[in-house]
Amino acid sequence: MTSSEQDAWFDQWMRDHIAILHRVSHAFAEGSDRHDLVQELMLAVWNAAPAFRKESTAATFIYRVSHNAALTWKRTQRNYRKKIDRFAGFAPVEPHNSSSNDELLQRVYAAIRLLPPLDRSLILLSLDGVSYREMAEMHSLSESNVGVRLNRIKQRLADNLKEDRHEF
């Protein structure tokens, strides 16, 4: 792949699929970290473009690359924050939203961030309408396992959101 071909693919992918990167960043990061993560995801997609073999759709490829990059970013952030916590008291700042819809969306993303990485990835893919077959291929699972996991994840999220609502 030439540099100009890579540029063209990347430009088209970002026009068509930038929302994927934003949804992944919302699922893995909070606050201003989301902007940093989107940039990391864009870089990961750019770097991975030459490996695209057209065996899947561009969206599936972008999902896979962005989810793997987000998992790596999350692991790096967790290790960094552990070091910060060791040397200084770190208190996360919760964003304040005036709209009830924004507040509900933030609560949903907060509940998703509490899930293990694989579950987080599956629920995000499900919310984006990705088929069980594609999810199974991305994560080397069977389609039936994806279905079972998603049902359990949805129940866990519903329970967490109910508990969260009762705390207010």
Please, could you describe this protein's structure?
With 168 residues, the protein is mostly helical. The chain folds into two domains: 1-93, Rna Polymerase Sigma Factor, Chain: A (Orthogonal Bundle), CATH 1.10.1740.10; 96-168, Arc Repressor Mutant, subunit A (Orthogonal Bundle), CATH 1.10.10.10. 77% of the residues lie in helices and 0% in strands. The chain has helices spanning 3-28, 33-48, 58-87, 100-113, 117-127, 132-139, 143-167. α1 (3-28) packs across α3. The chain starts with a helix and ends with a helix. Residues 89-93 have low confidence and may be disordered.
Evaluate the radius of gyration: 17 Å
Q: CATH superfamily of the largest domain, please?
A: RNA polymerase sigma factor, region 2, helix turn helix motif
How many domains in all? 2
Kindly report how far apart the N and C termini lie. Answer: 55 Å
